[in-house]
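Why does residue order matter? Because the sequence determines the fold. Keep that principle in mind as you read this record.
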Amino acid sequence: EWLANGSPPFAAIRALLACRLVALDKQPGVRPVGIGEIMRRLMAKVVLSLTGSTATTACGNFNLCAGLAAGIEGAVHAVAQRTSTWSSNQPPPIPTFHPPTIPQDPNSPRSPTHSIPLPSFPTEALPPSPSPTETYHDAIESSNTPPNDSIHPPSQPQPTQPTNTNPPTLTQPLIPPELPHSPSEHNQTSPTHTHLPPTTQHPTSSGSPLLTQDTRPHIDADNVSPLVHQLTHQLHDVSETILEEEGDHPHPNHSHHPADPEAFLLVDARNGFNELSRLAMLWTIRHRWPNGARFAFNCYRHASQLIMRTPGQDCTMILSREGVTQGDPLSMVLYGLALVPLAESLRRAQPGVLQPWYADDFAMVGPASALHSVMALLLQEGPDRGYYPEPQKSTVVCPPASRPHVEALLARYNFTYQAGSRYVGGFIGTQEARDLWLKPKLEAWHQGITDLAHVATQYPQAAYAGLAHSLQREWHYLQRVIPDVNEAFAPLESALREVFLPALLGEEPGLPDATIVALSGLGTHAAGLGIPNPCTTTAACHAASKAVTEKVTASLLASADLASEAHQAHAGRVRASTR
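Structure:
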């Protein structure tokens, strides 16, 4: 009551909010965790039990870390379902345009036996940029240039023009807007000097347009050589698919051009929880989670004390002025809510891109050009909320055949490209890469079973708890998010049956009685041990997980809002039916 509904002086609660700072090995890296007072943790748990549902509703599917049932599994299933549609066929090679051969007099200096000089693009010939509020159609309507039919559709034969040995006058874009494809469309009244606007607008969270300068050269359609004229038409067909960096053509139906293949991007951010803007977090909490805003404000309105102990030396005190304390029961909820406005802005900019968030783990699946657009917007708007993406540490997963195209479209960022990558406990990528990633995990679990068998000879209760509540839950989660891995668990099943069960029951190592093995696989409510055969639980675990997360997965794939209460009720019914 004092912290949740009042405004106590900070001096009275300063000691209550102090934490002991410990460092956990992230392999690689270090995760600083604050171990707080037990009374503070109890208060935070009470606040979450009473008002946590409203925080979950406020986050929705924009960030899945605020207590949403099976939200993390829904993110894995959504990404896996989207990437399963990737075509295995090799796309065509990256287009390379060569100047067409034009028959000419052999004695002419423009003969094919001579080198053809490419036109230069003087910057002083570029038209001035329009007003930031001017749209593409405004630029067309404001043009005073009379109509002209000098630009012909690609399907019509080009008119014979005299050879022009002078460079063309550059006043129009090299890549024109979409040309008409029929005589009826071509004869419609439209200005000849139709040009793409030099700037493209992106919506931002503040409502102001994000301007990206267009550096494409301009060329005059009335004074153009046949070489450049034909080259312009060849470039046009590809420009509609490759040059979608500004997000003008989202892909709501997940269809993409072979020259703009889909990819999976896993974004890495710098020290997410500690870099979060505390001011932006408290402001967002006040408007989106008012029930818990007062408690959060009292906990984070001043710098908290983080006490680091060193053996044989005096303790070191660090003041935490930014971010949220990892170890605080409220940290995941506060962090997830603080990034909801950023997630909303990115989804509005590119609704055709799958964008699941789990705390600071941000992933994207979509055409490479659309990923470029979302990443540019994230780099611009993320620092305002303390989210600092690091492209050089981010990973792109795509089919090997599409990698040259993806690298060409995302060349601006120094991404790491792989055939597969771990994603929030699951795996996205090729089966070969998945097997390589899974092998060391299975070996570690096998070694863990062997170690627990040695412990079980003297401490059977502790060994059983370690297996049932630690190792077994780890591989059950993996089975829930990765399908068709039952054969990989054969070594674990053998270790459980031949090593762990005999040690737990005080018998000699070897094959136990079949009845004992069957009884050990029953649940504890049926007088069993709850240690089923891991080879037979894979299909059931995966099917149950997909059923529980059905609504979350569908909402993420459709870039639609999630009815959190309906999802929670649906998940409860599915869990009750699968027990």
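The first helix runs from residue 2 to 5.
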